[in-house]
């Protein structure tokens, strides 16, 4: 097989972003035993996809500073808007962002500041983890990935193509190691603000940024494989089916394994299947214009949906569900959240990225390892 062209666009992966965002949305709209594992798998998909896309789009003429600048202006504008709007929601309604908190526990002072700076998940402290906009916890992990990427990528880029399958196995083993380590954690007697032992383990396997790094690295390795010519004709459906089977199997293993370990391989198959179709110019439903549009607004959807659902449940939820039923309610909420996300994308995210998130001009200095990535991608 020939190496995948680095400039190839991957519209199917963009479209699949909306499917993952919807998985998180439905998990918050209906937090049941059926949908919560789906929401966790959807976040894991975002982490894998992030590593894949950043590696796929890495260029010789980039710099660390330019890379970090683009990531900053991609993440923080929408984050700041939803952070501020969530503080307004808390102040006006008096509702807590998570069960067991008063509104002033997580919306004022240090908790809100740590959420704004996306450092709120590095310590197992309830008031920090669940502060302000709770869904921004994943951005804390993404921010860590972005800071580490220019340092980690040159290492992966130098791995010979023949060793990539072994590296893939090693990364998946790390993903399985995280829940194993979490089950060994014990804590002191619970004090105010501390997590009890089960929640301490959940914090480590779910919220702690470094525990999610192997999922990001999985995407990095997968991108190198596809760039090197590994483009199997599997499509997306086999990976989706295996992901559904893995979600159905979550009750069979302790909870920490349902966060990422069970779904790592199926989600990898989804990513490779979609990217391979795009590289081979095979049309997919995920790469159609409507799905690409939805994928482009998915980041704003992810950040804004929680407070929309919170307000809906607070003021209208019970009456609307009784009046139109569960299915119509989901469609209504999906439409409202998508419209809000589109507005954020059009008026916040897109203008800021156009103004501040452009790539460096050709000829600027390169981060170490990007040249090697271009040379070894198809070796």
Automatic annotation (TrEMBL):
Keywords assigned by UniProt, alphabetized: Acyltransferase, Membrane, Transferase, Transmembrane, Transmembrane helix
Segments of this protein annotated with the region Disordered: 358-379
A GO cellular component entry from the record: membrane
Keyword DNA damage attributed: no
Protein name, as recorded: Acyltransferase
Organism: Streptomyces violaceoruber
GO biological process: polysaccharide biosynthetic process
Ranges for domain Acyltransferase: 12-344
InterPro entries reported in the protein's UniProt record: Acyl_transf_3_dom, Acyltransferase_3
Membrane-spanning segments: 12-30, 36-59, 80-102, 135-156, 163-182, 202-222, 234-253, 259-279, 291-312, 324-348
